[in-house]
Amino acid sequence: MKNLILSILTIGVCTVVMAQDFNASISGAKSAYTSGNLEDARFNLENALREVDIAIGKEVLKVMPTMLGTLAYNAKEDNVTGMSASFAGLYVHRTYGTTPEKRATIDIVSDSPIMAGINAILSMPMVMNTGDGSQKVIKVQGYKTLLTKQSDENSQTTGYDVQTPFGSSMLTLHYDGNISESEIVKLANTIPLEKIISIAQ
What we know:
The protein has helices at residues 2-34, 38-63, 115-123, 181-188, 193-200, and strands at 67-68, 71-72, 79-82, 90-99, 102-110, 135-140, 143-151, 157-166, 169-176. The protein has 201 residues and is of the alpha+beta class. The strands form two sheets. A seven-stranded antiparallel sheet has the order 3-4-5-9-8-7-6, with helices on both faces. A two-stranded antiparallel sheet has the order 1-2.
């Protein structure tokens, strides 16, 4: 009971601090704009947008799975970042598993710099699958997705990347370990993609 009360108080304090940071940034932007200092106005607005991105990221984490197959998530490694408008927007990171031989991460990035390259691959029918089978286009929950297999020098599978673009954002499931293609696709389909998209967009 004591831990529950402490958790509620901590969440409440964090929410108040975030709201104060957001309000301070908006107030600073208004003041700077009124005084003609457009550089400071922009800076403060970017800070406010960062706070919004962080709040969105925390909501995304709430709907992300706590288990990915048999791998439990590492709560202490959860990370949410709001980037400046000049670089990128939302970044959400969650890890699963505790050993290098079997570990996974889910990353969600808005305005990802690699989006253009992924979308180009997904939109060109002649590049749907590589000759060596290391890269192919699949569908995950109705979304075109780039599946990339990693292999060692003995052609043994060492992991997969599953990259699913949506709007101006992308969700990447990265898995380290010997896993089959059907298993990684099954894991990708356990991620509540529609819920994440509805929050992140």
